[in-house]
Write a structure and sequence with these properties.
The structure is a homodimer of 151-residue chains. Chain A is of the alpha+beta class and 151 residues long. Chain A is built from five helices and eight strands, in the order E-E-H-E-E-H-H-E-E-H-E-E-H. The relative contact order of chain A is 0.21. Chain A binds a DNA duplex (30 and 30 nucleotides) through loops.
Chain lengths: 151, 151
Amino acid sequence: MFRGINPLSLDGKGRLSLPAKYRQHLLDEGNGQLVLTIDRDRCLLLYPLPVWEEIERKLIQLSSTNSRARALKRLLLGHAEDCCLDASGRILLPAPLREFANLEKRVVLVGQGNKFEIWSEQGWYAWRESLLAEDQDQHGEPLPDLDTLAF
Amino acid sequence: MFRGINPLSLDGKGRLSLPAKYRQHLLDEGNGQLVLTIDRDRCLLLYPLPVWEEIERKLIQLSSTNSRARALKRLLLGHAEDCCLDASGRILLPAPLREFANLEKRVVLVGQGNKFEIWSEQGWYAWRESLLAEDQDQHGEPLPDLDTLAF
DNA sequence: AGTTTAGTGGCGAAAAGTGGGAAAAAGTGG
DNA sequence: CCACTTTTTCCCACTTTTCGCCACTAAACT
């Protein structure tokens, strides 16, 4: 399971070195082959290949009559890029994806169970603070309680 | 069961030595493996690994239905960090989490049954006093009666 | 008062993250 | 189809961070 927040830097070539603690697991699950795509919230998603293939299968089965489903499929499949861990544990983020997520030097890798999210540092903290602020004001529904998961 | 408040110090590297009375219990329950995450009230939560895994399982099932739940998942899973008791009974609090909870030198560890909360000393006393003051003013809902837990 | 145990601090070896150069490959235009 | 330019990939080197270990102080217990 991928967890936790990892502040990292992209180098000049757009490479991102994945934290060492995850590398072995990524090598076991799919030989270090990964798939990168975009998320609605302007971050990138990073899946181990086997996990992505499962999602891809479901995406393809989605009915083409529904226009929302077609749109989702086009977005996710259309932006999906294979990438591979290199010898020093890094992956290359293609320029178009970096631009989409506004990734420059400072980046945050966020573990999300079966996948990672990649945010620009600025984007991540902005998202977090706005969520916490909104929660405090009780504008939206409250968040569920953690232990019981009751709302 | 974890109870009580423990004033403690972080050292220069952000390490926190857990009170000796809890150590054996933490070693029994999950080999001293712990998970640290954040709480909305700007403190940290410290779970024994088995307890956290139960919560994590529920979190993952919860997602996709409700957008608030998705946000909660991103927040909690995204900030969850494994940590481990070291040889002298300490855990390392990662810098991003320390910053989130404004932890500097003086810290309070608060027992909460199946988990601990970690507050900055200042944050803890401020929270407590403001809660009591607000309760007295009858601004918010009153606190329930302790013995009956009726409102 | 001596002995033990808890909490704290800090050094140093090892590992992780980052940057850059050169070889290889791919793309582009004549 | 070949030559040139740009991009990609591989590899090595440097710097910083991390983590295990030991040492010190203070409090508690005998």
